Sequence to fold (375 residues):
Amino acid sequence: MTKCLCPALLMMSCLLVHACGDSGATDTQETRTDTVIQVTTDVRSDGTVNRNDTVAPAGDLIDRTADILGDTDQPIEDTDIPAEDIATNPDSISPADASSVFDSNTLEDIDIADIISSDTAASEDTPTGPIDTGLEPLPDTAPPGPPPEWLLSIDNGTKVLQRVNITTGATTDLCDLYDPTLGAIPSYPSLTFSRNNFLYASRGGTALDLINPCTCEIEQLGSYGGWSGVNGITSDKGIQLLGAAATQDELISIQTKTGVGTLIGDLGANFTTHGATWSDSINGLYAINGLNNGLYTIDPLTGLATFQVTLSMNFGTVGIELLPANGVIYACSSEANLLSIDPVSGVVTTIGSMNQSGTCTNLAAPWKAVPCIEP
Fold:
């Protein structure tokens, strides 16, 4: 029996000496023999940790990879982290602790398109979309394309909106004007399109109406606020309107949302029957004064009217409009003929009869195409 036990005892002694023969008696070692992984964790006497892992099959690392930020095929390098610094060192925060900072959102929950669009929206200081006038745009009155070569006019005798042929002067009835809130249709001494292609009319020279050129429905917007004889309304350089008030001999700006007028300045001349139209070429207004048959320019900043030339025809009532499509100044008067005017010489040319039931007092020229009205 003694001969059999001695070799075994000798082998155990050798193993024990081998296990304890490294750096110090405080080291511990764990050897896993069921796989190729070996994990050695040394807790040194100076309070530091030395952990050395070698690559193992993925199946043996499932539990440990939950503690590692990201997967890696590289061996984890030796790290010497003082034990007392682990709780306070920011670099030692675990991924589980860090995830709480982001309100439990994962990377998959973040859409990069949302980030880009958010940054883009924040960087845009000025709007690029259409300016809000407070009015609902007509769905079929502002398509792209050049302005058409026709005019509109209201026959105040029959209360009909008409399309005017600029070559012959002939008119085509479009629709009967109607107001859903009032039965009676007022007289309109002036008619104009704004630059965003809304059609406005001066109701009795005291208030502003909006007219749908496709249906002839009228919307009453509001009074000019005390100004009267506003028989010449026209677009300004923006989306609002300008109006010459003959009673006060003043130029006013007109808000297209409410109709409210604001004084710009005195005309400096006595206007009676009249009309006005905007011109981009002079960056101001042309106006006809029926009192002296004079053609004037009006400064849109000061309101001052400056006499230009005496027209070659006597004007009673006045309708005037510059057509953006060709730059020609058209007019009409008591005999309801379509006229053209040379602003330099003052020569008035008769184009043809408009066949209206009474005198002509208004013309309007579109800035854009209107699909419900034929070209």
